[in-house]
Amino acid sequence: MSAESWPPKLKEWVAKCLGQMTDSNRAEASAELKQVIAESYANKTLWTTDWDGVQLKSHLKRKLNDGNQPSNKKTKKTAVAKSSAPHALDPNDAAALNRRAARFQREHEIERQKTRQANSLNSPYAQLYKSRSATPAMFDADGPETNTNVPNWDRFTIVGTSQEIFKDYLRLTSEPKPEQIRPYHVLQQTLNELKKKWREKATYNWICSQFKSLRQDLTVQRIKNEFTVTVYEIHARMALEVGDMVEYNQCQAMLRNLYELGIPGKVEEFTAYRILMLLHGRNRSGQLTERQKADPAVRHALAVQRAIAMGNYHALFDLYMNAPNMGAYIMDHFIDRERIRALMVMTKAYKTLPLPFIQDELGFETLTAAREFLVEHRAGFFQNPNSPDADAVLDCKPAGPQLAQTYEEKYRRVQIKGAV
Q: How many angstroms separate the CA atoms of 12 and 398, rounded?
C-alpha cells in the first residue's frame, strides 16, 4: 500500500496526527495510526471515510493529561477560557471524552460494517447476481439512483460521464474524476469494438492498453457483474495467446475473486488454466468441487499433473497435443523443461534414438524443430550429422550428461512473471 495512492483527506489527516504527537505518546500514537490506516485499507474504506472526524485515542488521552496538569500560565489561561465557554467539554470529564471519541469513530465503524456486509456471501449483496432488481436495505431511498451492477453501491460511488470509446491506460495518481471515466453502457461498446480490432489484427500493445483502461474504469466505478468477468476472461485469453504472463496472472487473480463472489463465468476453464500454471511453478492445486472435477478441461489439467508426477512422458505429450481451450499456451511455458526430463530418461534407456522418433514422442511439429531443440540444449550429438533430418540418429551416450547439466542450469529453478 503506497502513500501516493491515498486520498488527499487521508494525507491531511496523517499530517495533522503526526503534528500532534509528542515524545511521550509518539510510539503509542504511531502504532494506532498504522492500525487505523491498515484496517481502512483492508476494508476498502480509504476513499469513503470522513477522516476529518477520526481522532486517535492516544491523542485524546494526551489532552486529558494536559487538562489535569497545566504546565504553565498560558496553558492554565487557555483551560480556564475553554471551561467558561458555553457547552465546553470538561477535560476532567473522562466519560465525556470517551463519548466524544466514540462519536468520531462511529462513521468510520459504519463504513467498515458496510464493507464486511458487502463481502459476506450471506449478505443481501450476494443475491444481486440472482435478482438484478433487488435493492439492499442500506441503500438511501432519497439518494441518487442505485446501480445493481455495483455490489457495494453507496452515495460515494463514482459514475463516469465520458463518451470516449477508446482511451489509453494511465495509472491514477489522484482521486478519479467522473468526466474522465466511461459509464457502463460506453464500456460495453468499448469491449465490442476491441474484439473487432483484435480480429482485425491490431497490435497487442495497443489492445492491452485499452483493456487495462477498461478494467480501470470498471474498478473505479466498483462494477462487478457478468460483464466484468467477461472483460477479464477475454483479456486473459489474449494475454495467453501472445505469452504476456504478467497480464494473464493479474486477470486470473481478479477472476478468482469475482468467481468467489458468485458471479457466473467460465469457472472450469480458468480453473484448468490455474492448475496448469501451478504445474509450471511446481506447486500443488487446491481443492476442487465435483462440478469442476467433471469438466473436460479440468480433467485434462489433472491428467497432465498426474503424468508429470509419474514421469509418464508419453502420456504427457499426448495430452499436450490434444489440450482443450487454450491449455496448450500455458503448457508451452513448461513443455521444454519436460522434454529435457524425458530425454534424460530416454538417453539412459537407449544407445541411439532416430530423430523422427524423438519428434513423434516429444510433440515437435517438425524434424527441424526437434534438431534445433537438441542443438540449443547442447545435446546435438548425431552419429551421422551430415545426413538429412529424416535419417539423423542421436548418439545417447554423450548427449545424456549434457542434458542433465542443462536441466540443472536452466530448469531447476522456476520464475513465474506476474504471479500473484
A: 69
Q: Could you tell me which of 273, 263, 264 has the C-alpha nearest to residue 295?
A: 273
User: How far, in Å, are 115, 125, 126, 261 from residue 138 at the CA level?
Assistant: 12, 10, 14, 19
Mean pLDDT estimate for the chain: 78
- The DSSP annotation for 6-64 comes to S-HHHHHHHHHHHHH--TTTHHHHHHHHHHHHHHHHHTT-TTTS-GGG---HHHHHHHH
Could you report the per-residue pLDDT of 376-394, keeping only the tens digit for each? 999 999 999 888 999 999 9
The residues, ordered by sequence, that sit 6+ positions from 248 with a Cβ below 8 Å of its Cβ are: 236, 239, 240, 418
pLDDT tens digits, residue range 59-80?
A: 666 555 555 554 444 444 444 4
Cα–Cα distance, 223 to 149 (Å, whole number): 5
Residues linked to residue 394 through DSSP beta bridges, in sequence order? 353, 382
Residue 102 Cα to chain centre, angstroms: 35
In whole angstroms, what is the distance from residue 46 CA to residue 50 CA? 9
Q: How far apart are CA 152 and CA 144, in angstroms?
A: 14
Report the half-sphere exposure of 336 (CA within 13 A, side-chain side).
Answer: 16
What does the alpha-carbon distance between residue 309 and residue 296 come to, in Å, rounded to a whole number? 20
User: In the numeric block, which cell numbers belong to residue 104?
Assistant: 468520531
| Torsion angle of the four alpha carbons 59, 64, 65, 67, in this order, in degrees rounded to the nearest 10 | 120
